[in-house]
Q: What sequence folds into this?
């Protein structure tokens, strides 16, 4: 049985970037711009760096205190560098 890979932890970097550790141990630095570019619920995430830093992980999903959330799904781990219509993902190596 294949285990679903989820977000284990997240460290906000300079907005709109975030470092994410997945349950399989992989780490990625992700530009959240495409995820937070529209929608009123993401307005404080987009415009307030302090609010952006308040990100938490709940049930494998990135969440903010106002109810905004982002669930990446497993596709984000399919290769070391991917460009989607929705995001750019880069591998973050330990010790780099």
A:
């Amino acid at each position: 049985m294949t285990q679903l890979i989820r977000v284990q932890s997240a460290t906000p970097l300079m907005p709109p970037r975030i470092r994410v550790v997945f349950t399989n141990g992989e780490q990625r630095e992700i530009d959240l711009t495409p995820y937070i570019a529209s929608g009123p619920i993401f307005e404080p995430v987009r415009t307030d760096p302090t609010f952006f830093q308040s990100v938490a992980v709940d049930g494998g999903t990135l969440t903010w205190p106002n109810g905004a959330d982002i669930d990446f799904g497993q596709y984000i781990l399919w290769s070391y560098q991917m460009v989607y219509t929705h995001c750019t993902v880069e591998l973050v190596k330990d010790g780099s």
User: Anything to note?
Assistant: The first helix runs from residue 33 to 36. Residues 79-93 have pLDDT under 50 and may be disordered.
